């Protein structure tokens, strides 16, 4: 799988450098917008989540 950059740092699949270590992820659309495709993905600030519904990634699992 290509690198997946993610800032949800309280997920069990998250690792330093804003990388995801899951073998497969499920994503749904995010109507709230996002950030520029040119953003430096590895240095974005952490955005921890309290539950699956707080992320657009349905693979999120709390650490
Ligand atoms: S929230 Fe999703 S993309 Fe982010 S680390 Fe967890 S499984 Fe990977």
Q: List SSEs in N-to-C order.
A: EE
Largest sheet: number of strands, sense, barrel closure: 2 strands, antiparallel
Helix content: under 10%
Mean pLDDT: 83
Global shape: globular
Backbone CA Rg: 11 Å
Beta content: 5-15%
- Quote the distance from N terminus to C terminus: 22 Å
State the low-pLDDT regions, or none: none
Please report the number of helical segments: 0
How many β-strand runs? 2
Strand order of the largest sheet: 1-2
Which class best fits the helix and strand makeup? little secondary structure
How many domains in all? Answer: 1
Q: What hetero molecules are in the model?
A: iron/sulfur cluster
Characterise this structure:
There is one protein chain. The mean pLDDT is 83. With 63 residues, the protein is largely without helices or strands. 0% of the residues lie in helices and 6% in strands. It has strands at 14-15, 19-20. The two termini are 22 Å apart. It has one domain (1-63). β1 (14-15) and β2 (19-20) form a beta hairpin. The structure holds iron/sulfur cluster (SF4). Iron/sulfur cluster binds next to loops. Residues 4-60 form the DUF1540 domain. InterPro entries: DUF1540.
Secondary-structure map:
Elements: E1 14-15, E2 19-20
Antiparallel strand pairs: 1-2
Summarize this structure as a short list of keywords or feature phrases.
63 residues; little secondary structure; two-stranded antiparallel sheet; 2 strands; binds iron/sulfur cluster
